[in-house]
Write a structure and sequence with these properties.
Layout (H helix, E strand, L loop, with lengths): L6 H10 L8 E8 L3 E5 L3 H7 L16 H8 L4 E9 L5 E12 L5 E9 L1 H21 L6 H15 L5 E6 L5 E4 L1 H10 L23 H13 L4 E9 L2 E13 L5 E10 L1 H48 L6 H32 L8 E4 H18 L3 E6 L5 E4 L1 H17 L6 E8 L4 E7 L34 H11 L3 E7 L3 E9 L12 H15 L6
Helix pairs in contact: 8-9, 9-12, 10-11, 10-13, 11-12, 11-13
């Protein structure tokens, strides 16, 4: 098998084919256009079995998908299709939602990230409901005139719809008076309006006294327009009840009498909350993947460009045999190269760490430390960076000693992230103020305050989300992927604490970590301070690598 080792393929394999997979679905990476398989998650083999495909899913295999899915892959474009029918094992039919994301490498192969979601249960339920609705519509449109026949049909209809897991009601088209409703509709009405105790309390009343609609007037106009065109009308609604968000879909179907006039409207309502939440989860997953690719592409390209330029410059000096004459310039080139290597390592570590944290694989190795002394050492270590930019950093502890059980590496990283953020958005002459104080007997607060550009209050909640950089357009002296604050928040939560932000636009920001006070680390002993300071110096180079000092 031909071995490909391109940066794009390595990126796709690392970020799309991990151990974490979506429920009822799977992801694979294939080369376009021959569908050669280069990687997949742990659920992909099961997907192939459901598709009736006989293959062991070995890397390098050219997959032959069913025609319905193969036709989608042949487009070679980023698309999303729902409810694709495909033959399953033993002659069964399966249904799939398929998402394709196309990735192009300059002067190299093209890849498709293919995500499958098994929608068989959803489509079968929809077919069942459509069939039952068709049966009810046939009963209602039979046009029988005998009263005993109508009575038998109505009885059959009532017995049928009371067993269907959907909301069913009929009402007079002109007066909107309710004619009939099944037990699901009655239960929904009675839960919303306690005064409704029996069906007699709603029969004959206006249906739209009880039906939820954000704009009732527009809804009625839309129904009238659909009726005039001889069509049904579909109404989707999102509402919140008792703190829970629901999504419903209601079909308003006109029913004709023997003279061809609209006599009544049947309203068939379906709770689609689970389907809507699944779709939104899928959209969020796809957006996170796309954001990761966009952000990391930029963060990879910039330092690689600097490193490549430095290498080309050194090559030129070697050709001209003038290394001694440009010794200082070579030293500067080497410094920039090393700095950008730190930056690349920080990017990779951030991606790996956020993945470990989200999958629950990140653990603490805590010991009891005097946190005042630890913060003082951190401040001393970063003073060189702040002085070079004319920024003053001050640490003001309320107490001289406070013992906390912390994972010192993760604590250093959490605090250094907040300090580096403060430096990014400060200018010469401003001050960074670090404060430690007891909130109460059980909690200590560590705050980092700057006098920088600040954050719009509307963005304070979102800054702890992945890939968010609300100040990107305000200050280009700093870069980043938008993973630092989410990691800091997660590390604080791993310690049983919290982190919050306060800010005034144009006047600065304050980030506050709250941690529980106590002792009882998970390991005994502490590393020698000289070794810890050496480790911290390396960590500072990583954390400050995206600040243009």
């Amino acid at each position: 098998m031909e071995e490909l080792n391109t940066p794009l393929l390595e990126f796709l394999l690392r970020n799309y084919c991990g151990a974490d997979t979506i429920d009822n679905g799977s992801t694979a990476i294939v080369e376009y256009p021959d569908c050669r398989l280069w990687g997949h998650d742990s659920h992909f083999r099961n997907t192939l079995q459901l598709l009736g495909m006989e293959t062991d899913a070995s890397v390098g295999t050219c997959l032959e998908f069913p025609p319905e899915i193969a036709g989608l892959l042949e487009r070679g474009a980023s698309v999303h299709e729902t409810g694709l029918a495909a033959p399953g094992p033993e002659g069964t039919i399966t249904y799939w939602d398929v998402t394709l994301k196309r990735f192009l490498e300059q002067e190299g192969p093209e890849y498709l990230v293919v995500t499958f979601f098994d929608a068989t249960a959803r489509e079968e339920e929809r077919d069942r409901l459509i069939g039952e609705t068709r049966d009810m519509r046939s009963l209602l449109n039979s046009g029988r005139s005998e009263s005993d026949e109508e009575s038998r049909e109505f009885t059959a209809l009532q017995e049928s719809v009371d067993e269907i897991s959907l909301y069913y009601a009929s009402f007079d088209y002109k007066t909107k008076a309710i004619i009939f409703l099944n037990r699901f509709s009655f239960q929904a009405f009675s839960e919303e309006w306690p005064e409704i105790r029996t069906e007699a309390d709603v029969i004959g009343k206006n249906f739209f006294n009880y039906y939820r609609a954000e704009d009732l007037e527009t809804l009625l106009q839309d129904i009238d327009e659909a009726v005039a065109n001889g069509e049904s009308y579909l109404h989707k609604l999102e509402f919140t009840k008792d703190g829970v968000t629901y999504h419903t879909k209601t079909i308003f179907q006109p029913v004709m009498n023997g003279q061809g006039e609209v006599e009544k409207i049947i309203a068939l309502g379906i709770d689609i909350s689970d389907e809507e939440m699944a779709n939104r989860s899928m959209e969020k997953l796809l957006k996170d993947q796309e954001d990761l690719f966009i952000n990391t592409s930029h963060e990879l390209k910039t330092p690689l460009t600097v490193i490549m330029s430095g290498a080309q410059l050194l090559d030129l000096y070697v050709e001209k045999d003038c290394l001694n004459e440009v010794r200082e310039e070579i030293r500067d080139v080497n410094k920039r190269t090393v700095g950008n290597c730190y930056r690349l390592n920080r990017l990779i570590n951030n991606i790996l760490d956020i993945s470990k944290i989200e999958s629950g694989l990140s653990e603490l190795q805590t010991a009891d430390y005097n946190i005042v002394d630890m913060i003082d050492r951190i401040v001393d270590s970063v003073t060189e960076y702040t002085k070079s930019e004319g920024i003053r950093i001050v640490f003001d502890p309320e107490v001289e000693e406070l013992i906390l059980p912390v994972d010192i590496v993760k604590f250093d990283r959490m605090l250094l992230n907040l300090i580096s953020n403060a430096i990014k958005f400060s200018v010469p002459g401003e001050e960074i103020f670090i404060r430690l104080e007891r909130k109460n007997a059980q909690t200590v607060c560590i705050s980092v305050r700057d006098e920088g550009i600040g954050i719009d209050p509307d963005n304070l909640e979102s800054i702890f989300n992945k890939f968010v950089q609300v100040n990107r357009n305000l200050n280009r002296t700093a870069e980043g992927t938008g993973l630092g604050l989410p990691i800091a928040k997660s590390l604080a939560e791993l310690h049983g604490g919290t982190i919050r932000a306060e800010s005034t636009l144009g006047r600065g920001s304050t980030f506050t970590i709250e941690l529980p006070i106590g002792t009882g680390g998970t390991r005994s002993g502490q590393p020698p301070m000289s070794n810890r300071d050496m480790d911290r110096d390396q960590l500072i180079k990583y954390e400050f690598s995206d600040i243009y000092l």
